[in-house]
Amino acid sequence: MSLPERHEAVTADTFLRGLWQENPVFVMLLGMCPVLAVTNSAINALAMGLATTFVLLCSSSLVSLLRKMIPKQVRIATYIIIIATFVTMVDYAIQAISLDLYNALGAFIQLIVVNCMILGRAEAYASKQRLGATLVNGLGMGTGFTIALLCLGSVREILGAGSLFGVQLFSDNFQPWVVMILPPGGFFVLGAWLLVFAWYRQRRERRLLEQEGVTTDGR
Amino acid sequence: MTQPAAEQAVPSTPRIPMLRTLGLVAALSGFLVVLAHHLSLPLIEENKRIAIERALFKVIPGAVTRRDFQLTADDIEPLGEAAPAQGMHLYAGYDAKGALAGVALEAAAQGYQDVIRVLYSYDPACECIRGIQVLKMAETPGIGDKIAKDPDFLRNFEALDTRLDPTGSGLANAIISVKHGSKSEPWQIDAISGATISSKAVARMLNDSTQQALPVIARHLDTLQQPAGGTP
Lengths: 219, 232
Hints:
Number of domains of chain A: 1
Number of strands of chain A: 2
Order of helices and strands of chain A: HHHHHHHEEH
Helix content of chain A: 55-70%
Strand content of chain B: 15-25%
Number of helices of chain A: 8
Number of strands of chain B: 9
Shape of chain A: flat
Strand order of the largest sheet of chain B: 2-1-3-4-5-6-7
Structural class of chain B: alpha+beta
Distance between the termini of chain A: 49 Å
Number of domains of chain B: 1
Oligomer: heterodimer
Largest sheet of chain A: 2 strands, antiparallel
């Protein structure tokens, strides 16, 4: 509480960080439980991503608004109550929108409470920053999380069920790769995506180094 | 040595701000949860009703209207919109002319992962089960969840024999699941190869439910056959 607050100016980077450099799934490896569990179809992944984004946005803004009032001894308890409130609201909302979707997502809606990405954002960002920056950052993180879930969900659904968003893509001759929609498939596809990201980042870093090398040589 | 240190630490705990913040957050949280519950309740109830009706009209061929009944150990009573106080919830489906097209009941049993709940229809005319619709399950995708979609498995329930024994107190032949491809009698269920536990669960729940409900339905068929609107 006595810490000097260093407010961050809201820039495009505040939003984009969540999509790329600090992507919660592919870079920080946070919230792995829903990432592996509910990405067996694209629609489940999208619903989970949107629900998590909503909870993240609402809870971070409330934490940011109350940040000067929350004594540090009870901060985690306060964050959890705030997060649990919005999770319960999302739970009711999904039941009202579609019971099929609610049954498909099962207990993982309630488990958003313990998604460490949300608690992490509250502790590391929202409790130190102004409302504006928190909202932009939270939106970026939530979008990054949703995109990551969709990346996994679409690949798993295409390979494991031969469809995307429930639309059949192949003829009846396609034998679905059922393991992809079972739990092991979640690990396979996540591993493959992490490989792609690591490879891309390494290539980019090497190119940056080479460019620097050229400029130093030319000096 | 540790005593003074602990005493020193006590005054630094801000009790009033702690109580104030937690109290405020808890009150706000309670308000928001109650608000969300109130706003979503009618929609959720409506969704549940639509889900039941959709399953019902799919499972009873030709049904266009429904009436609800409460089925107890020895009687059938008409039911309003409320859930039955005791016994089973029985749905009667009527065709366009108002004649009884069939009745539907819920059955449940432990599956491979969790309880499986299905809605099945019974046709008094042929004394057989006419169809099933899985309402809720958590079976393995691609294996056990075939009980909901596999056309070969669902063909078992197009006319599954459920004739009563001569005394009318139970089924003449218990419903059982048999190994895939070895079905020889109309009361047997051809199991899905690789999903024996899920198939057996379906057979067990249908057997348990029909053994209990069908004798009562047979005795009170006239209650169900009265045209809709003609009953008190």
